Every structure is written in structure tokens, then in C-alpha cells.
Amino acid sequence: MDPYKQALQAIRDMVEEAKQIAPSDLMVMSLATVDAVGQPSVRTVYLQAVVDSGLVFFTSCHSRKAIQLAANPRAAVCLYCQPLARQIQVEGTAWLLGEEEADMYWATRGRDSQLAAWASSQAESLESREDFEHRLAEYRQRFDFRRQVPKPRHWCGYCLTPERIELWKKSWRYPQQRVCYQKAPNGWSVTHVNP
Ligand SMILES: Cc1cc2nc3c(=O)[nH]c(=O)nc-3n(C[C@H](O)[C@H](O)[C@H](O)COP(=O)(O)O)c2cc1C
After folding, report:
1. Going residue by residue through the chain (195 aa), what tens digit of pLDDT does each one get?
2. Is the Cβ–Cβ distance between 176 and 169 less than 8 Å?
3. pTM value?
4. Which of 8, 12, 20, 191 is the most buried (most CB within 10 A)?
5. Has residue 117 been placed in a domain?
6. Would residue 141 count as lying in a domain?
7. Using CA positions, which residue lies closest to atom 18 of ligand 1?
8. What is the total count of domains within the chain?
9. Going by C-beta distance under 8 Å and a sequence separation of 6 or more, which residues neighbour residue 184?
10. Angle at which helices 111-119 and 129-142 pack, to 10 degrees?
11. Residue 107: which residues within 8 A CB-CB, separation 6 or more?
């Protein structure tokens, strides 16, 4: 199999296996971005989908990460599943998804996080905790009779297109294994690295 497809499949496998262990949990990942002076920042986001062009996530277009990505789209994510003893690191470029594609993945998001996105303005400070809860209650009421909560205009989808993928795993049969997939001008290479 093509090394890139093989690495994507490893990500999909980890997501599927993690879901079987904790069915209610969405896969989360740490997303790192950098600001104009090269200061990295990192936070947790939901991994929305793994598509052929990369890893899809959503955020507020006004958030700090969105502002940083607009200036510098280089980003990295790290997914860790403790029960599976597996880690996946992905480095590459995060591109804004088109509206149609973003709407499609948005529809797969849980209703609670869809409503929270309507109520949340990530870049602004909050007057009080109740302020957010009131907004959330308003949106819950507004979309009460709609099967689908639409994507708010201020919420955008990104696809992190990988240039490097590193898998780390451990099993009862083997000690730690590290495999690195790297994009090169003539295709993807695979290297086994010391754990
Ligand atoms: C489990 C979990 C899942 C989260 N998922 C998302 C997400 O999918 N998108 C998002 O923008 N923020 C998500 N957050 C909130 C972010 O971690 C972060 O607080 C927020 O996006 C603001 O980050 P920024 O100011 O660095 O842009 C999640 C937090 C947790 C703990």
C-alpha cells in the first residue's frame, strides 16, 4: 500500500478502536499553531474526520488559533490513546475547508457541541458564566424543532494536510515501535525510528 494511505489508515484504525473502548467519546487531539513571533500555542480540539487530504477539525473563525493559522497555516497535532498505548503525530499545513464541505462534516458533530459553537465567541472574554449559559439556552430553544443545527457563520472547518506522520505504539508482544512517514518530492518515505 502507498505509505501515505497506510499512515492514514493507521489513524482511522486508532479512531475506530478508541471508539470501541469508549463509544461516547469523540477522538480529541492537541493542535499546535504558532504566532507571528514563532511562539507556539497548543489546545485540544475534536478530530472531526480523517479524509484523503488530511485531518478535519472545527473552530471559531475569531479564535486565537484561527488568527494564527490565517497568518501562518503550518500546524501540528498529536493524538494519544492511553488504553491502546498509541500516539500519532501529524505535521503539515491547515487549509480552510469550503463552505459545502465544512457543512457536511459539521453535520457529523454532536448536537451539544454544535449548540455550544453557536453560543461561544472564543476570542471574546465572558462577562459571567451565566452569560454563556443564557446564550446556550437561547440557542437550544431556537433550534429545538430543527433536526439539524446549521453551522454558524463564525465557525469554520480546517483540514490539516500532512507532510509528516509519526506513529508510536506499544503492545504486549513488542516494545515501543516508532514509524515515521515523510513526504518527499518523489513520494512518501517510511522509516523505523528508535523508540
Ligand atoms: C475535549 C475538548 C474538545 C474541544 N474541542 C474543540 C473543538 O473541536 N474546536 C474548538 O475550537 N475548540 C475546542 N475545544 C476548546 C479548545 O481547547 C480551546 O479552549 C478553544 O478552542 C480556544 O483556543 P484558542 O484560544 O487557542 O484558539 C475543546 C476543548 C476540549 C477540552
Report:
1. 799 999 999 999 999 999 998 876 679 999 999 999 999 999 999 999 999 999 999 999 999 999 999 999 999 999 999 999 999 999 999 999 999 999 999 998 889 889 988 888 777 777 777 888 888 899 999 988 777 899 999 899 999 999 999 999 987 777 889 999 999 999 999 999 988
2. yes
3. 0.91
4. 8
5. no
6. no
7. 43
8. 1
9. none
10. 120
11. 148
CATH of the domain at 18: 2.30.110.10
Please state, in angstroms and rounded to a whole number, the distance separating the CA atoms of residues 185 and 123.
38
Domain range enclosing 39: 3-109+152-193
- What is the atom index within ligand 1 of the atom nearest the CA of 123? 25
Residues composing the chain: 195
- Taking the centre of ligand 1 as the mean of its atom positions, its distance from the CA of residue 59, in whole angstroms, is 7
Kindly give the number of the ligand 1 atom that is closest to the alpha carbon of 64: 27
Residue 130 located in a structural domain:
no
Instruction: Name all residues whose Cβ lies below 6 A of ligand 1.
Output: 28, 41, 43-46, 57-60, 63-65, 122
CA of 44 to the centre of ligand 1 (A): 5
